[in-house]
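Pilot study result, target chain (348 residues):
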Amino acid sequence: MKRYTLFIVVIALLVTIIAAGSAFLSSGSPTVKRHPMQELTAYTSLPAEIAAVLSEEYEKEHNIRVNFVQLSSEQILKRLNDQSREEGDGKAALVLTDRETLDRAAAAGYLVPYISEKSDQVADSFRHPNRYWTGVWYDPVVFAVNQDYLRTHLDLPNSWQQLTQQRDIRIGTTDFMAADASSNLLYSMIAEYGDQRAFEIWRRIQPKIIQYSKYLHTPVRQAGMGEVDLSVAVLSETLRYVHDEYPIRILYPVDGTSAVIYGTGIAFRASERDARAAEVFADWLLTDEAQLSLEQHRFYFLTTNPMTLSYQMFAGKNINIFRNRPYFSKEEKEILLDRWIKEVRFYE
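Predicted structure:
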């Protein structure tokens, strides 16, 4: 009986020790404090897939979650306006969007200036003169040329003027009505050359266009497959096909081209803690690490930071971008597209 009682006591002690040990391990060391992950809200007009990549990679490195809210340009401006009118700290700390939206936000007082060692390396053409925003990437329009065509032609079609004079050439492009990056080319040429000259250039190119596509990647695929000789396309889509070893050579218009520029701005009325975190994230977007994370997921934007390895290794870094900004109202853009349809695409 005594043995049986002793056995029960020993078992009870072991159970108590195990339970106490488990409780200690589950609660962690009493000297270690667990901090909840900081979260940051950012408004963006970038595609959701790109925003997700950036958020995931940054969280891995910095243990800060960037919650991107995908919005249109007008929605971003409205939310920033609402935030600027409210007292206290606002919800959003960062804006990651196109240059025109950032310029409009800065002019309305929705952003606060910020400069750092990294952002100071960016060229003046890619940032606000008073540092209310800084460009991080740009995506220019280029000529994606089938290599077989280049082998049989000595005169390179490397300018808009040369393209209008090229005789035996089949051209592909995205319909200006189908994508903002495509219509931005038309607006940019009008801002740079004036409407008369811009429409004249496209009237002379029009007879050589085999097909207007709906999507930005289609003209590049056509050039790679030899269905057209040259495509007017955005560089980001062209580089995807180049990396897939399609027989395409990229030519940069020497007389200038348009580009969509994406940048960051710190939102007015963001809390001090969130604003500091937003500044660190904005600097991270200017690093090779951010660039590599995009490229690993087949997103190919050009970095604006000349100190990165990505910039220094890129052969076309001296791209001639139009100086004048294509800022037209919604009504003006509709009028210009209507003119293009009547005077160029369906003109007889």
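One observation from the pilot: Confidence is low (pLDDT under 50) at residues 1-34. A full batch analysis is planned for the follow-on phase.
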